[in-house]
Amino acid sequence: MVSYKGYEPVIGVEVHVELRTSEKAFCRCSAEYGGDPDSKCCPVCLGMPGATPSLNPEAHRLAVLTGLALGCKIERVSRFDRKHYFYPDLPKGYQITQFYDPLCRDGAVTFELDGVRRTVGIERIHLEEDAGKLSYKGDKLSIDNNRCGVPLAEIVTRPHMRSADEAMAFVDELRRILLFAGVSDCKMNEGSLRCDVNVSVRPVGSETPGVRCEIKNINSINFIGRAVDAELVRQTDLILSGGTVEVQTRRFNEDTLKTEYMRKKEKTADYRYIREPEIPAVITDEAYVESVRREMPPLPAKREEELRNIGIKAESAKLICSLPKLADYFDLVKKETSDAVTAANLFVSEIIPVMRRGEPCVPPEYLARCADMFAAGDVNIVSARTSLRLSLEEGISPHTAAERHGLFVLKDEGLIKEMIEKACASNEKTVAQIRAGKVSAKKVIIGGVMKLSSGRAEPRLLSRLVDEFFE
How far is it, in rounded angstroms, from Cα 30 to Cα 22? Predict the structure, then answer.
């Protein structure tokens, strides 16, 4: 919990996730991002008189999958409603959504923050359509209706969060789950995952909720944290100065890092919800739910646990499972190597930074081979990393890189004995100390041989030969 002047925030989040479908929610227009303004529209998504919407079954399937990934109960009967409001980016004058009978209820997201397991409840998930996009250039407003009708899953949490860090960690984990489930690309910069954050404040120790303000359309996890902190300060200072917090819809100004008034918060009655007359009730039977469940990919928490169970450190497992493409790559590596732990260490230090930059990286079997070379004692860890980097740079296998650049561990006893003699010849004082019984001084000789061999002498063999030399 983070408090400010004796007050704590109470936070709930509404997350709007664009579902990964090729077509829109209620028509067959393309749901692909981008394109010329108004180039992906039809009478249905623009709400022309007489146009009849019909539910995209793939949008329904992905919404069910979202609910299952978040542990929700999938309702057998769900229905669509019309939510009326009048904004320039909503040509119909209403949004098709699910208010009275949503598709999913009562889920949860569990995550770790500062070493403590936290759980945030999911109240409901409903399927709806997106609005268009407004763009401001100076004092001119332009409207692009391409996004109208793109299918959304709106995920509504319970007000279980008590700090900006907790809200950020929740959204980060939710995003990770949705990516692994394959329901959305979750690109916040393109608007396919957006958050409305509800914040109220109350005295620390109180169980009475404060007056809630909604901060709309935050498209960055970092800005979620900043918006919560800014609103905590604003509401607390207002209360302490004798003012009253009013129910408002606000926005987060990314330049001033403060929230700003947009409008008075609408009440449910203001939306004038009515049943959508053109779309019949959706029946989602148990057989269908189970078929979707069987197709659900492994989620990140399970994949992390599998990695930890084979000895990979928790931090590395978390990083490997931060994105599906990283976890999928490492799955291929695991199948090819006898030393998954070393492979994980090399993957985290050498490959993940390359993949995050979007640059070409070595095939998974190259990383596996590099880990196997270390497991066999053919290279030390420094040489393993070097051979992998050279493999990336030169487009050759790690084995070829080690051969070409002399990176294999030196195991030639005769050559190592010659180096021991050279190291002793240049460290006569140290040799005298060892002869006098100072065993720890052998480290100086070992270091000298490592320098002569450019770090390639096999450590255990070198240690044994040094011991034998002074017997």
Answer: 6
